[in-house]
């Protein structure tokens, strides 16, 4: 198992370590922020099929669908800009956005219509009966976390929800904590992890 870059660091030192990790990353943080806003705007500008239906005008997708668009479009945009360096994931063992020259810089993308919180599937925090983590991909590494407004179901006129928060940083696999209930389907992060290991863009 790889040692966390935060190993033995006190919480008071986490923010500086996160800044250091972001500075080491091959994508500069202003460009990450710019791409997020770009693809979000394009979601509302595109027409669906030949019928010309518009998101936010003719129909109002659930947050899961809007998050799916971000998951797909952000890797597509980076692979278009830098085809020899970035690509979308090709199997379940890869992060959402893969850095071809050095996979350790690959990025997992998380989206939420929550005002600020970050969530993962419960599998992020599950362990097997042997005590080993049950996972298809490494849950530690760089994360891009995007929070956005959801459509108001009580409004039927034109809507364009906004991106409310974009954060970038590093999360370790054991930062994810499953819900206490056996039926819980989510894993979440502690307030300290949210605050000091994910920094708001633009920095």
The CATH architecture category equals 3-Layer(aba) Sandwich
The total domain count is 1
CATH-derived topology: ECO RV Endonuclease, Chain A
Unreliable stretches, pLDDT < 50, 5 or more residues? none
- Which term fits the overall shape? globular
Could you tell me the strand content as a percent range?
A: 15-25%
Distance between the termini: 31 Å
Summing up helix and strand content along with how strands pair, one would put the structural category as: alpha+beta
Radius of gyration: 18 Å
Average the pLDDT over all residues and give the rounded result: 88
Q: Tell how many strands the DSSP assignment holds.
A: 11
SSE succession: HHEEHEEEEEEEEHE
Give the neighbour order of strands across the main sheet.
5-7-8-11
Q: Helical amount among residues, as a percent range? A: 25-40%
CATH class: Alpha Beta
Largest sheet: 4 strands, mixed
Account of the 3D structure:
- The protein is an alpha+beta fold.
- It has one domain (11-200): ECO RV Endonuclease, Chain A, CATH 3.40.600.
- Helix content is 26%, strand content 22%.
- It has four helices and eleven strands.
- The strands form four sheets. The chain has a four-stranded mixed sheet. Strands 6-10-9 form a three-stranded antiparallel sheet, with no helix packed on it.
- Strand 3 (86-88) and strand 4 form a beta hairpin.
- Helix 2 crosses helix 3.
- It is globular, with a radius of gyration of 18 Å.
- The relative contact order is 0.17.
């Amino acid at each position: 198992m790889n040692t966390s870059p935060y190993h033995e660091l006190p919480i008071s030192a986490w923010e500086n370590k996160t800044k250091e990790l972001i500075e080491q990353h091959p994508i500069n943080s202003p460009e990450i922020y710019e791409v997020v806003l770009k693809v979000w705007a394009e979601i509302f500008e595109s027409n669906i099929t030949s019928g010309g239906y518009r998101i936010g005008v003719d129909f109002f997708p659930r947050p899961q669908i809007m998050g799916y668009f971000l998951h797909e479009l952000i890797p597509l945009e980076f692979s278009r800009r830098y085809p020899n360096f970035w690509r979308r994931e090709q199997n379940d063992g890869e992060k959402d956005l893969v850095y071809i020259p050095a996979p350790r810089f690959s990025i997992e993308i998380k989206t939420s219509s929550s005002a600020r919180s970050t969530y993962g599937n419960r599998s992020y925090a599950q362990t097997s009966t042997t005590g080993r983590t049950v996972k298809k991909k490494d849950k530690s590494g760089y994360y891009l976390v995007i929070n956005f407004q959801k459509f108001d179901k009580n409004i039927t006129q034109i809507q364009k929800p906004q991106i409310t928060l974009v954060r970038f940083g590093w999360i370790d696999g054991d930062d994810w904590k499953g819900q206490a209930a056996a039926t819980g389907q989510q894993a979440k992060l502690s307030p300290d992890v949210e605050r000091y290991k994910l920094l708001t863009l633009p920095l």
